Amino acid sequence: MVLGSGSQNKHPMGKNQMTIAEKILAKASGNDTVKPREIVTAQIDVAMSHENADVVLRAFREIGIEKVWDAERIVLLFDHRIPAESEKTAATHQRIRMFVKEQGIKHFYDLNEGICHQVLPENGHSRPGDVLVGTDSHTTTHGAFGTFATGIGATEMAGVWATGELWFMVPESMRIKISGDFNKHVSAKDLILSIVGKLGAAGADYKAIEFSGETISNMSIASRMVLTNLSMEMGAKVAFVVPDKKTVDYVRSRTNQPFSTLLPDQDAEYVEDLDINVNDLESMVACPHSVDNVKPVAEVAGMRIDQALIGSCTNGRLEDLASAAEILDGKQVSPGVRLLVIPASRRVYLEAVRKGYVEVFIRSGALVLNPGCGPCLGAHQGLMAPGEVCISTTNRNFKGRMGSSEAFVFLASPATVAQSAIAGEITAPN
Amino acid sequence: MQMIKGRAYKFGDGINTDVIYPGRYLSITTDREEMAKHCFETVYPEFLKTARAGDIIVGGKNFGCGSSREQAATCLKYFGIGAVVAESFARIFYRNAINLGLPVLVAPGVTRVVDHGDDIEIDLDRGMVKNTRTNETVESTRLPSFILEIINDGGLIKHLRKKLGLSNK
Ligand code: SF4
After folding, report:
1. Which of A13, B40, B109, B165 is most deeply buried (CB count within 10 A of its CB)?
2. Cross-chain Cβ contact A136/B68 below 8 Å
3. Ligand 1 centre from A367 Cα, in Å?
4. How many CB atoms lie within 10 A of CB A124?
């Protein structure tokens, strides 16, 4: 196995040791080295949008250029409001489909594939060493593959469609090393919730995070994506899992596109270094109405719930459904609780059918929805009434996020949500 | 030199994009005037009744955190908000505002010297925010010249058109 060597970009004198973020931005901006706070113009490798491509499109037309810079580097799909919940959205989908045809956009996934942050990796669009921008804040997720991946707004995406480049301030980097073994039913979600709770909602503002350590090496790709996904909720600009053989194997099996696996230099500089051991970590929950309001599940146990949700770009992958199915197998969802299960993608859905998880869910009384964002963003499907309580595997519990501004959303792992659905109240799995 | 004057409309820390622009209106993608009718609607409905065009939003820490929805910046701009001054910003909101030509200033200490309803004055070039009631000032971080240029051009689209040699009317 050849991992693009860490020494490639080193200064001959051994100076200017760089982090992953710095290396990728140096490469993308055509510089030998870059330093934190420097502003660089980077070439974009992948530009992703979902329904909000409609907003991008209007801005793109206003710029007044006929053709996008590279029809092969733009990835479009629908996931936020599928199938269309309103005529307005149907028209949005329609306009984007027409644009895809008109421009010859090569990578377009209609409403049958799933959530962008799952569909792109599955199809080999998330690659180490690349710069990937998306008009979605949780684009940080793709950093699980060593990609410099970050969310941008619609107007600047129009600029990317027109020019293929974008300015970035080189972020400072922080390093989080994870060691130890998880207890049963404790997972990456509990870990990242505890980190968000510790550092706060602005704890990594503008920064790049690098996750590494033995626990990460042993972690599945899906679990790594949970970490980079929720890093956004600490304000991180990008979050990486330092790529290893697992990363390279995953990406190789999905694309023939070349990529360069950039690793951090040994003496790269970090503004913060955290060491976290997970041996004693218990199941965690983020309480309303902010993601950093994190407590052990035990502290809020007994809270009555109306809805339980398993899905989203955070925890809608096969291992998440497996963990929920293990707990729900042969059990019934508590009367009065609505359990919604939403696979993150069509492929995940199909695997879950094959493995029998879907049958477990249906037998338990759950409602299995089509792959997509579901109620996560409060646009449709399964919204909450005033006073209702939901426990969810998603990544945001802001006031009004999932329907009524007087509803309460708790965020937890798939195991905790499944256990709570059976109990009818917030309960730690054991 | 650019001065922005207006009445302060003050918020606390961590005002997120779901609060600024509720998800249920995300299906509005092109009608900017329509977006402006829903600023803060679910959580601070009084905003739509008491805020006026020309007001300057004064925010606490991490203003605009959350999703990348550009509607959060667009709705404020088309409501007529003159600028947003905050202790700190979440990065996507910050970039979106600049790209739309809505001035955004990081001014540590601003929530200490400005009360809701005060008249304030922003000097964009010098990076100063002044409370004209109390005459107190705080410094804001000065925007790099290329960002000032985007704002002065009226946003990224007009800026790009200028750079690409297309006419701006
Ligand atoms: S699942 Fe939720 S957080 Fe993820 S992309 Fe969809 S709306 Fe955003």
Report:
1. B40
2. yes
3. 19
4. 18
